[in-house]
Amino acid sequence: MIDFVGAGPGAKDLITVRGMELISKAQVIVYTGSLVNPELLAYASNDAEIYDSSGMDLKEIMSVMLKAHREGKRVVRLHTGDPALYGAIGEQFKLLDEEHIEYGYCPGVSSLFGAASALKKEFTVPGGSQSLIITRMEGRTEVPESEGIRSLASHHSSMAVFLSAGMIKKLSKELIKGGYGPDSPAAIVYKATWDDEKVIYTTVKELPEEAEKNGIKRTAIIFAGDFLSDEAFSENVRSKLYDPDFH
Ligand code: SAH
pTM surpassing 0.90? Predict the structure, then answer.
């Protein structure tokens, strides 16, 4: 059996109970070493074979998993956060489907939500933005033209930008061109829920300076939107959910 498992955002105890149990039963574990906290491997049995996929290509990853599967071993493919976001699981699923091999899929806590907990913020604001855009800047991976930062920024919703800390200067410019005021609220969350987590509240204009000052080039989500300001959650605008007149 092969199980894809979301490792959570970093902290060892932010994996699901199911994910932890799958790790403890696995005889072979292939984990994304660049982002998964190695402390999670403490849940593995002492004789489990462990592979770090960060130095492996898709073919190598698949060949380790397929070989173990054919030997009747239990395999866990451990992905950071929740595998459904930028996890590149689709291509692995496809190859397993072609081989008619069944696999399980255990979700995880995305770093998106790890970051919300670090920020202590709600992405959706009563009386304000009711949408969260999850996106990335174009890098080696292309982004469809209609999903460029500038165009998405025009919605003025809450925004979470993954995989883009290394391009933060351009990101800041595009957010402003898209319509976020230069002084509108922004934040950088680096290594959410890890011991060396950093949370930086700033403005859209000052994102690049803050990233530079704090030495952040990767493993961060960059946020923009009014949900970051304290005023967004004012006395006057309360959720209907807890309104005493709402039944
Ligand atoms: N599937 C993962 C995302 C993988 S893409 C998830 O659900 O979290 C890798 C990107 O995720 C990084 O470039 C960064 O933008 C973000 N990321 C992963 N872990 C993070 C963490 N602990 N804190 C902040 N951002 C993180």
Answer: yes
